[in-house]
Amino acid sequence: MHFFDRLADRIAAADSVVSVGLDPDPARLPDSVRDADLPRWQFNRRIIDATHEHAACYKPNAAFYEDPDGWRSLQETIAYAHGKDVPVLLDAKRGDIGNTARQYAQILDDDEGPAADAITVNPFLGRDSLEPFLQRADKGVFVLGRTSNPGGEDLQDLELASGEKLYERVVHLADLWNGNGNVGLVVGATNPDELEEIRELVPDIPFLVPGVGAQGGDAEAAVEHGLADGVGLVNSSRGIIFAGEDADTRRDDSGDAFFKAAGQSAKQLKERLNQFR
């Protein structure tokens, strides 16, 4: 089954388009898991327990796992999420040439343990740098299209000789690269007008819309323009996983209050987004 078919099934089962970002910053972990074996994994396990009923997908960011214990934590996290029937999108923003790209794409291979169901990629080096990902027809490939960070406009707003802006060309290319029906786009939620414009350019490609939550993105626009035939994801990371981060909950030895707050935040976001579906 292709990734977007599995995602559609999960969205229906959970009645949710919420992507929960799993970014376990070691400096922000609560005391209840800080001294555990593989604290990032223990943190993620409890976040998943608290949020899985409301999650369409989990999105771990590779930057928080790039050390030996981190990779072990990531594998455990993927396996545990799969055990809850929730797909995993690895936010790695990969993109390189030749043999390096092929090596990066192996992180999607299921024959060496639990593997992510989808990945984010950087299109700056062109199609050949993404081909090893695109040819995995059962895996989702989310191409960076229009990002919500302030510096994104430094390059993405540049006007080409064709009259297009650079991000508009990337969006068109992503559509051309979608021969296997496994391409999505990453489009930030902080500019509703651009979300609408990009949806008009590519009516059928699902979006991953970050920036709803701590970055203050527009929830209504994220749903209205982010979904293609009901399929797409709206992500919140810090706004969910650190929702219980205050002095009282951090001093709770069991961590129950901390993780309960994450579950409540995921539920609230699901209900907020569902108003516009």
Automatic annotation (TrEMBL):
Source species, domain of life: Archaea
Ranges of residues in domain Orotidine 5'-phosphate decarboxylase: 17-253
Keyword terms, alphabetized: Decarboxylase, Lyase, Pyrimidine biosynthesis
Catalytic activity: orotidine 5'-phosphate + H(+) = UMP + CO2
GO MF, any single term: orotidine-5'-phosphate decarboxylase activity
EC identifiers of the protein: 4.1.1.23
Active site positions, chain numbering: K93 (proton donor)
Enzyme class per UniProt: lyase
Similarity comment text for this entry: Belongs to the OMP decarboxylase family. Type 2 subfamily.
Name this protein carries in UniProt: Orotidine 5'-phosphate decarboxylase
Gene: pyrF
